[in-house]
Amino acid sequence: MQGTQLVSRVAAVLRRVGSGAADGVTTAEVATATGLPRSTAQRVLAALAEEGFVDRDARRGRWFPGPELFLLGSVAAERYDVTSTARDVLRSLAAKTGESAFFSARRGDETVCLAGEEGSFPLRSHVLREGIRFPLGVASAGLAILALLPLEDAESYVRSRGGELVAAYGEQHEPATLSRRVAATRRRGYAVNPGLIVPGSWGVAAVVFDRAGSPAWALSLTGVESRFDGERTAQLGALLLEAAHTLTQRIARRGSRL
After folding, report:
1. Which residues form the signal peptide (predicted)?
2. Domain 3-71 has CATH 1.10.10.10
């Protein structure tokens, strides 16, 4: 690997390690996620470990983000992290609904979950957690963001990524079906994931915009199917739209001070 290809592969390795949460990831999992041969993934991980970007638990054979990533992240957070701005909104959503509330950010053609707040209802969906990534159009946050992109960009994404999404997440993500969900989301203003990733685990999401008016983040509520009948789903959607509007305004005011 040379040049930009090397940078791309290293970035993919770091993203996979970063999405491993508290359990870490194995070399095999990194290789599968990045398309690298296992021996290559091992060499890249070992090189990153020498520089402090990843750390390895030798006893369990699992990789974790390293101290250098923490230091870089602390610096970047001064400019880019808006999670602290969203925390009380998440707490309010969880308290009002009893469902788990999450805040996700768009990163290219993916969403990454930045923060979550558990609701009081004892049965929960476990699809979302901090650090997990999904392609746009998968999970409610990614569907909400995809639907609020310029229509031409959303349609181009669905055409180009449809086969990949079907292979990873099933026939319910084939282009024609996904296009219908995008259109329905644009009409409603909020996205609904009716158990498409894990049967029985539902999600509803609304977009939070950046200062330029682009869909950059999403608020979502997740729970079990029995809690998301038609009328209540609409109520949750309306609540999310109100919260997303509030957070959009906060982020705009915060950005003006950067």
Report:
1. none
2. yes
